[in-house]
Amino acid sequence: MTAIPTSGAMAPASIRQLFSYPFRIFFLSMSILALLVIPAWVLQVTGVINLPLALPGLFWHQHEMLFGFLSAAIAGFLLTAVCTWTQTSRTHGSRLVALWGVWLAGRVLLAFGGGLPDWLVHIVNLAFLPLVMLDAGWRIWHARQKRQLLIMVVLGLLWLMQVGFVLKLEMTYSYGALIMAMALISIIGGRITPAFSTGWMRQQGLDPSTVRVVPALDLTSLACMILLMLSLVMGWQTASGVLAIAAAILVSVRLAGWKGWHTRREPLLWILHLSILWIPVALVLLAGTLLADWPSNAWSHAAGAGAISCLILGVMARVSLGHSGRPLILPRGMVMAFVAIHLAAAIRVLTALTVIPWHPGIGISTALWLLAFGMFLARYTVILASPRPDGKEG
Questions:
Q1: How many other CB atoms are there within 10 angstroms of residue 34's CB atom?
Q2: How far is Cα 260 from Cα 275, in angstroms, rounded to an integer?
Q3: What percent helix, strand, coil does the chain show, rounded to 5?
Q4: Burial of residue 217, with CB atoms counted within 10 A of its CB: 0-12 exposed, 13-18 middle, 19 or more buried
Q5: Does the predicted TM-score (pTM) go above 0.90?
Q6: For 44, phi and psi rounded to 5 degrees?
Q7: Does position 393 have pLDDT exceeding 50, yes or no?
């Protein structure tokens, strides 16, 4: 595949440029966090290091992947997209520095704040998502775009799961957060994936009318996932298992309508379809956990390492090109990164199911994870830190 130039020869890269648009600093920071947190967790759990964590080790790991890693991706995408949706000026400069500072402070406090008061650590970490919602929500409200309010509702529920998680340290809330995270990527993926696919098919001379988007099905699957989250929090195990199966069927039917196999020649598209396919896989594994006592970390890694992380990598790769004014031509090595992140998720799930022994499974999946996000940093850091080649803002 032809590579795009990434040397930034047209204009110098700079730290200042990273704060010219939300996707730049948050995508870069999130990728660095991905390269730090997973190895740190492996070293921590194997006793090689002993970080002064502000939460017990397992809860720290879960929080950082759900509310550190994911929240940065949400901020980068949502605060970039909402400017386009509402035709408002972007968050940049000192306001963006302050917002990013809140996110960064949360990561530092959780990793090294074991001796600090709990209230301080919690306030800083719980502040970030509401600030993102306030920025996006204000724009959506004034633009009277009611369609976008669903995203705000799901984000609010995700934040409530974070509140419950940090205050009570119960796995139920991390499970609820995973469901809301999948609901969120289901909404966003359900908008961009078929839209991008039909545009590409039209360019390729294929019939885009074969792609089916059914709004009623979209809303039904979202409602089912919200009910699933509420059922999990309430502790209704059998009902949750049934709802998980129902949600898996609805998401699968929805995904089949997008005809993802037509996009198999375009990595920037098949990565989106394949990533969303992890959602029904995770939901089936959740049903197995609830109804047949399957290992709970199988479904949680299918959701986290599979659906969420794989889609984040695919969206970052595309958004970073499009919003930096570059052609949608994937940089060299990124196909390998896409394959690596999916293999990392698959091996981690198989390890949880004891199909693969624990030590080699953890080692291989960690190495593939590092390869995927390391490749993104190698190919996209200069892109994210350089001005647009067309001279426009952002």
A1: 27
A2: 11
A3: 80, 0, 20
A4: middle
A5: yes
A6: -70, -45
A7: yes
Single-letter amino acid code for the residue at 144: R
Phi-psi region of 110 (alpha: psi -120 to 50; beta: other; left: phi over 0): alpha
Terminal Cα-to-Cα distance of the chain (whole angstroms): 27
Give me the pLDDT at residue 90, please. Answer: 85
Q: What is the DSSP letter of 5?
A: P
8: confidence class by pLDDT, cuts 50, 70, 90: very low
Query: Which tokens sit at 129?
Result: 């998502």
Find the mean pLDDT for residues 70-98.
Answer: 91
Whether 77 contacts 188, CB under 8 Å: yes
Question: How far apart are the C-alpha atoms of 13 and 381, rounded to whole Å?
Answer: 9
**High-pLDDT (> 70) share of the chain, %:** 97
pLDDT average, residue stretch 206-220: 92
Is residue 92 scored above 80 in pLDDT? yes
Both tokens of 125, joined, read: 């970490």
Question: pLDDT digit string (tens) for 347-384?
Answer: 999 999 999 999 899 999 999 999 999 999 999 999 99
Contact yes or no for 186/154 (Cβ under 8 A):
no
Residue partners of 261: CB distance under 8 A and separation at least 6: none
What's 239-256 look like in SS3? HHHHHHHHHHHHHHHHHH
If we measure between CA atoms, which residue out of 157, 92, 163 comes closest to residue 127? 163
Spell out the SS3 assignment of 169-238: CCHHHHHHHHHHHHHHHHHHHHHHHHHHHHHHHHHCCCCHHHCCCCHHHHHHHHHHHHHHHHHHHHCCHH
The total number of residues written for the chain in this structure = 394
- Round to whole Å and give the CA distance between 237 and 224: 15
Distance (Å) of CA 347 to CA 35, 53, 360: 18, 28, 10
Angle, helix 171-203 to helix 215-234, in steps of 10 degrees: 170
User: DSSP readout, 320-363?
Assistant: HHHTTT--S-PPTTHHHHHHHHHHHHHHHHHHHTTSS-HHHHHH
The helix or strand, by DSSP H or E, that contains position 279, with its residue range, turns out to be helix 267-292
